[in-house]
Amino acid sequence: MLTLYYSPGACSLASHVTLEETGAPFEAHRVTLAKGEQHTPEYRAINPRARVPALRIDGGDVLTENPAILTYLARRFPEAKLLPADPLAEARCLSMMAFLSSSVHPAFAHIFRPERFADDASAHPAIKETGRRVFFDHLKEIDGLLAGKEWAQGSFTVCDPYLLVFYWWGMRIELPVAELPNYTAHKQRMLARPAVRRAIEREGIPLA
User: Fold this and answer.
1) Taking 80 as the threshold, does the pLDDT of residue 208 lie above it?
2) Could you tell me if 137 and 73 are in contact, meaning their C-beta atoms sit under 8 angstroms apart?
3) C-alpha span between 70 and 59 (Å, rounded)
4) Buried b (16+ CB within 10 A) or exposed e, 180-203
5) What is the fold of 2-80?
6) Class of the 87-193 domain?
């Protein structure tokens, strides 16, 4: 049995949706970041970095970081066809996940975690403002990448649940994400998928 450790609305939503897409049985264990539950000794024993997601594999090994978890799930459950079969297409999918984890996510962190980037509190407003601008620039880039496509890589892949995370985050901080036509249409297609509905209902995310 797989066990996913997630926090409502966090980047772990990508792994949560992907698990639902596989159709495999799993346990969903809530770790509420807003309450500091990631810092408990019990959770640090699972993930010493005190972050989500974490995936316990059949009661044994623990895997962390979305790109690794998403790739593992896609390869463990190939019948779900969540990674392209062609090596170049697969590499492009991995490239997009790397972009989301190494560029888009950190831009958002500047908005909510400025203390990670400067000890001087007087610098935090500028860090937040820059993060907000850069994050929205990334969303606009994603909107362009989705032009003329139903899904990010042509067919549905693990990239699509990951993209949903950042659209939701843009909504949370009241960026004009509705002005991004391709990204908004992608969000609507995601919401039509039963697996997505199950995950967001469990997390209580007002994405509709």
Assistant:
1) no
2) no
3) 18
4) beebeebbeebeebebbbbbbeeb
5) Glutaredoxin (3.40.30)
6) mainly alpha
